[in-house]
Structure formats: C-alpha cells, structure tokens
Amino acid sequence: MEIVLQDALHSIRSLLCTATIVTPHERMLHHDRKSAIGISFPQCLFSPESVLMRPNTRSLKYDHVVKEVEHRECNPEATYVRHPSGMKETVSLRYLAPSTDFDCDPASENQQSQPNTDSFIKQELPASSASETEMSN
Predict the structure, then answer these.
(1) What is the DSSP letter of 128?
(2) What are the residue boundaries of the structural domains of the chain, listed by start?
(3) Nearby residues of 82 by Cβ (< 8 Å), 6 or more positions away
(4) Which fold is adopted by the domain 41-102?
C-alpha cells in the first residue's frame, strides 16, 4: 500500500503547469525534488530537440520574446543549448519551454466552399427578369 501511495503522490506532484513549465512543487519550493527513480525533469528535456528559450536581456523592445534553440543536454539546474547561429550557451531550466510544431494546412483546403449568406449582399437578378421589372415601371 505504501509503495502505491508514494507513486501516486509522485504523479500528482509532477504534473506540469503548461504556462510556466514547472510543477507545483518547483513553483512553491525552489529546490530539486527527488522522485522514486531520481531527480525529476520536464519531459521535453529528455531528448535533443528544439525548445523555446526566453533571453535574459532584450536590447530593443522589438526583439523577439522567445527564441527557438536546439536543446543538447541538461542537468538538474541548467541545460546546454545551441542557437541557430551556432553559438552554444548554458541556460537555466526556468528559461526554457517546449516547442510544439503545429502541422497547419492552408485554410482553403480545410474549409468547404459555402455560399455567401451575408444579408447585406443582394443577389443579382437574371438579365431576363431584370428587363421585365424595368418594362413594368
């Protein structure tokens, strides 16, 4: 019973908040939490892939808020990333978020053609019926 309870509590504590990519434990207590199998990491940091990184400083307000970098390897406090320019850097885990690749199809392929149902657009009358209405006036 105690073994199952420990695993259940670990599962609840390790739920990630998708906005901040931290667990409730990490948000409230700023030290590493040991799990049943060791120190827990966010799932996105297990394999080398692209992640979003918030830079420490922005020189202009027009600079990007996040940059997409390639994650290399990590330890409990920091991770090693490589920028698209080739520069390698060590950053804290708190500055990273998972990058999701959305497969967006063009809207024209997904949408079915529907007739225009706007009430303010008048349908044009056929030429024969238009000439009949003019003759009756």
Answers:
(1) H
(2) 1-40, 41-102
(3) 69, 70, 72, 88, 89
(4) SH3 type barrels. (2.30.30)
What is the C-alpha separation between 54 and 130, in angstroms, rounded? 64
Task: Show the DSSP H helices in the chain as ranges.
Answer: 2-13, 24-28, 107-110, 127-136
Digit-by-digit pLDDT tens for the chain (137 residues) are 777 888 777 776 666 665 666 666 666 665 555 566 666 666 666 667 788 888 877 788 888 888 888 888 887 778 888 988 999 999 888 788 777 653 333 343 344 444 444 444 455 555 555 555 555 55
Which one, of 81, 116, 115, 110, lies nearest residue 95 by Cα? 81
